Amino acid sequence: MTGAGLALPAQDERTVPPVVLEGIESRPLDEAVAAVQQLVEGYGHLVVVCAKAAPAAVVQRLYTVRALLESDRIALFQPDLPPLGLAVLARQLRQLASCDLGPGVVASAGRLLTHYIHAGALLGTVARLDHVPVTLTSHARSWVPGSQFAVLAHPQPQLVKAGPGVTVPGPEFGTWLLLAKGQLPAEWVTETLAPAWRTQGLRETPLPAESARWWGTNKVVEFCAYLPDLSVLYQLVTSVRQSVCHWCGIDVIGDRCVFCSATPPPVPEPPRALTPGGPRHALPAG
């Protein structure tokens, strides 16, 4: 992962430790290439989890390093999630990496598990919020002292004025809730959102360094509902049909290889059968 704030503590002793490529865009290119090459040689395959809203210099450096190494064992994964949701997803992939799953399946699982994450935040202002649509009315209300807004960024963006009994749509399956406090009280999350979402438990973690920039304010309490159990994650992933990438030969799930970006070749159309009245071939004269 590209930031220390995305490296959540392990939930069990099996979870693979994170590797943080902190400041890879500011390091000399030869050092960055050598560092990534060492990781690939040590682990075999590398899945780099990077925010979609990461600075362009970070993304460009990652693609440059992969191109220079000419390696199809490096996958760059950029899901459209806020920082805390991205950190949760990265930890789930670390959990799966401890199982008897191939690297292509683990990397492909990121797209699948993204659908089971509900990520949002409680904000004191939406004046600088760029990642979720904000109406003019909400912009005006954000200048009223004491206003708070509940924002769901994923899976379906939604914004409401927070208050007792007011919430945003949550998951329809059992989850735990992770929250990260900024400069805002968290009572609405713990007393209104958590009961409405029927969460099975609640944990706290420090606010990721990227959160204030992503949400446009320090007055934030970021939250994320997720599946914590490795057995459930494993069952979800193994229930999806696996296939072999026709280009690099690795096992994957989904329609695109996350390592070489190859898609399945087009299936040739079967030959059309002749129908009555259709074209006929002339018989040779004899």
Automatic annotation (TrEMBL):
Q: What is this protein called?
A: Uncharacterized protein
What is the organism of origin for this protein?
A: Streptomyces roseirectus
